[in-house]
Amino acid sequence: MTLPDIFFRLASRADLPSIVRMLADDDLGSQRERYEDPLPEAYYSAFGQIDSDPNHELIVAERNGEVIGTLHLMFLPSVSFQGGRRAQIESVRVDKRFQSQGIGSEMMKWSMERARQRGAHVVQLTTHKTRLDAQRFYERLGFKGSHLGMKFSLK
Amino acid sequence: MTLPDIFFRLASRADLPSIVRMLADDDLGSQRERYEDPLPEAYYSAFGQIDSDPNHELIVAERNGEVIGTLHLMFLPSVSFQGGRRAQIESVRVDKRFQSQGIGSEMMKWSMERARQRGAHVVQLTTHKTRLDAQRFYERLGFKGSHLGMKFSLK
Fold it and tell me: Is the pTM of this model over 0.90?
């Protein structure tokens, strides 16, 4: 689970403040997260559900002992595609202080390889239409923007 | 779990041939499914994984004892959105013989209510950019096409 000076591992409960800080430190994320001390209990509850489910892997990227990135890799069983397993990536963030250093790219390549190892036939993600930099980033990694991502808010 | 003359329930193993028939009976689906008798074992294996996971609900719509529609509703724990649970819908199909009768709309409304009951804050799905009718259908139900859905094939 290593790459030149970046180390990938499953997140622990103690990583949650770092993860939420990165989720919140973002134009869209700042409107929906609560990075407080202590963190709202709902984050720990969600972490417990993720951590106890082998189809979910909340990943952190570490460098020199510091968490510098995160993503949530999930494996979705499906009847479609001849019962093929999908990998889905959500909640991708690189610490703003360390962006544009290729860390996000290493995180994605690691995740795509992990998805391949676990037998997924596809890696899927959605990105907000306003995140044009993110779209170009994923295209450079080989992702095709073939789908429209639609949401219905229940709140 | 009833609506005027349509009944919704969790799919059983015995429903798989009907489900795969509907998945395959479609421009895109015909290229990727194998509707054969007997069905390839991979479909049953995937069904087993879905059926044993409480975060996955493979649903069939039934009318007069006949399966006329299917969708896969999944609940995804997430750290994002203050640890908010997402609902995701995949593999939506209505039997071609019974399309344009409002069945798909009833299936979606049932699923959105189910997602609300199970505490999801959002229902999300992606639809291929070429499925313009599907996009209009989801927009009529209140979905917003705010995201780009990107895929990377591992095959």
Answer: yes
The kind and range of the H/E element at B48 are helix B41-51
ipTM of this predicted complex?
0.94
| Rounded CA separation A151/A132 (Å) | 19
Mutate to test the interface with B, among A58, A121, A151, A153 (most CBs of B within 10 A): A151
Region B49-67: what's the mean pLDDT? 97
Distance CA A62, CA B93 (A): 43
- Non-local (6+) Cβ contacts of B15 within 8 A are B60, B67, B70
Rounded Cα–Cα distance for residues B26 and B33 (Å):
10
Alpha helices in A14-102 (DSSP H): 16-24, 41-51, 80-83
Would the CB atoms of A80 and B115 count as touching at under 8 Å? no
